[in-house]
User: Which sequence fits this backbone?
């Protein structure tokens, strides 16, 4: 039972990563030096993938096999809302310097700029 769940998760992860990065099944088949239909079977779950091919895919996406296996959890963590890590006090700056700082911060995606 656990084997089926893990296999299904790996297949789903391979499909999601491929689509996320804009690759086709043929792109991955060429990278792995396997037939396109074989790679398609791996994603569908009708064919197994060996550890060396799994390592090759992980390296292709610049991640470890552990990160590849934990991929769905990594995505959840990556998209959690940013929590404030620091506050910047700009009261000591001139009005022109404050404006420059605020303009820069305003252009950085994911930062909420609040004035007191």
Assistant:
């Amino acid at each position: 039972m656990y084997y089926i769940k893990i296999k299904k998760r790996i297949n789903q992860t391979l499909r999601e990563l491929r689509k996320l990065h804009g690759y086709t099944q043929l792109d991955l088949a060429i990278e792995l030096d396997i037939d396109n239909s074989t790679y398609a079977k791996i994603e569908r779950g009708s064919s197994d993938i060996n550890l060396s091919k799994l390592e090759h895919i992980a390296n292709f996406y610049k991640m470890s096999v552990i990160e590849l296996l934990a991929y769905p959890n990594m995505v959840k963590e990556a998209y959690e809302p940013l929590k404030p890590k620091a506050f910047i006090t700009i009261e000591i700056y001139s009005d022109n310097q404050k404006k420059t700082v605020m303009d820069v911060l305003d252009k950085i995606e994911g930062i909420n700029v609040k004035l007191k």
User: Anything to note?
Assistant: Residues 75-87 have pLDDT under 50 and may be disordered. Residues 82 and 109 are 11 Å apart (CA to CA).
